[in-house]
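chain and backbone:
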Amino acid sequence: MRVARGTAALLGAVALLVVIPSNAGAAQAPKFSETTAIGTHNAYEKSKYTYFAQALDSGASLLEVDVYTDPLTRRWRVSHSNPLGNDNNCEAAKTPGELYGKSRNQDLGSCLDNIAAWHQLHPDHRPIVFKVEMKNGFNQTIGLGPAAFDTLVRQKLGSMVYKPSDLLDGKYPTLDAAAKAGAWPSRDDLTGKVIFELIPGTVEQANPFDHYWTDQEYGDHLRDLYAAGNIATAQAFPAVLGAAAGDPRTGRYDASIRPWFVFFDGNAATYVTQGYDTSFYSANHYILITTDAAGVSPAISSTSPTDAEVAARLALLAGKHASVITSDWSAKSPAVLGSVVDRS
């Protein structure tokens, strides 16, 4: 039977009404675990930014800070190579009006003060990961252990911090269970939030007398806090450091703390050239930080690539399931460093 042209058009319109949902066209904001962004290596260095507030202005989604525990003063020092002194762009500034002009070379507490002051100026800022390399590790014997770190961050930043307990949301027994369930919030829901990632430092790893590194120590800390009903006090996510095949937690940590690692951090070129199956990270909604993004073949400038080269490298590593790629691209504009794409 032939259908009249007008009748056919009407039926087609009805069919469209049936198959198109009422919220069609309303884009769903991607989850934090579903995107790939750009970070700046050693953003606390004065050669990168004159003031740490400028690093915060940069648009980068990750900023790295190196921290030493100073046994003489019992302070958290911020420096690349001096464990007994501060050498950085953090200011003695606690209010927005004091930023961009106060004395620099301050300790970690002042870096956190700068973050808090900058946040007052930009309460709706992008989510920012602060990657903290504990250069010589925690030092419980001088009162600078994981709990002291938590206390300092909590006192300085308060509710700005997205914490392990926020991912657990009172529903999951471990961070691993929460990540695998896709419990990460959207990037929009993380507006105005900061996240702390902890990795073991180069000095700590080279110390033949130190076999209890930052990652394991903070993993134990999370496990014990959860068991005691105090997980809400934890302020950071420990990361598994180093690119490796398979699940790098296996064989490195005992079974009691493996589920407390959902951040992974390794060299971008190693992941790519070794052909590691990085889909493991996105499939489980883990956060994968890939460092020295410029070094992936074909190598590009680690300081001043073109905008097109940065965009291509971001797309390449998003296809390799990275959550954040990092390099020394501090000279690039906020429009470039603030780029966020879909994670493959």
Notes: The longest helix spans residues 5-19. The longest strand covers residues 62-70.
